[in-house]
Write a structure and sequence with these properties.
It is built from eleven helices and nine strands. It has 273 residues and is α/β, with parallel strands linked by helices. 49% of the residues lie in helices and 14% in strands. The chain has a single domain, classed as 2-enoyl-CoA Hydratase, Chain A, domain 1 (Alpha-Beta Complex), CATH 3.90.226.10. The longest helix is centred in the middle third of the chain and has 21 residues. The strands form two sheets. The protein has a six-stranded mixed sheet with strand order 1-2-3-4-6-9, sandwiched between helices. A three-stranded mixed sheet has the order 5-7-8. Strand 1 and strand 2 form a beta hairpin.
Amino acid sequence: MSFQDIEYEVINRVARITTTRAKYRNAQSRRLLEELDQAFTTAATDRDVHVIALFGQGEHFSGGHDLGTPEEREDMQRRPIQEGIRGKFDHSREQFVEKSMRWRNVPKPTIAGVQGYCIFGGWIIASAMDIVYAGESAMFLGSNFQFFTVPWDIHPRKAKEILYESRFIDAAEALELNLVNRVVPDAELQDSVLEYAERVATNDPFQLRMIKMAVNQMQDTQGFQAHMNAAHLMHMVSAQGERDPDYELKVPEGKRRPMVERAFENYERQKKH
């Protein structure tokens, strides 16, 4: 199996998936997401795999969506999406909603090891995993992105507080909010994830599958999937609103989204105090 933007290997019944776009802070290009989807599908159907562990190479788990690296621009020229709202909607839904839902429902336990930036699209991928371990450097930034799990990941009232302000959540606060399961030193992150994964992998895979289905079904009966569908539509409207002439925030130079720019401004302000 050959990939360009991820690494995949199976050791001790654990499929290890690692994104390898470290020079772009593991920004999520279309190709990277397609390769992740293929890797999860492969692991899901491999009887020798009992658990799946996901990592991001380098200092950051993921800086979010790929907003225009050379590779992404080349891919979009070679495989253009349909023009207009139809193409944007179909592309957005397949890349970020349907793929994330498939990964969430993979019939095996999934664990993410998160260090450094976990921004927007990074949060999406991490939230689709069953368990999240965070390194001490982890910094989470949420928004009303395509796969809007934030009010499921943390209490809705707390979600509103953080999203209204647009601010980072560090590893300590993420643990306090139950956004992550454990926080460990960055140097111990991968070993800690794999140690846990290998313990879980010694259990019966059918029982693990039933446990996961039961927990996911609890969320589904509360409206999880219906909310994801509705929230995606609201995301599309929100993204269009950034182009509105009355949009209140200054659109930063380069590729950074306005609310991400605001989050970094808030972070710098907090450091000074």
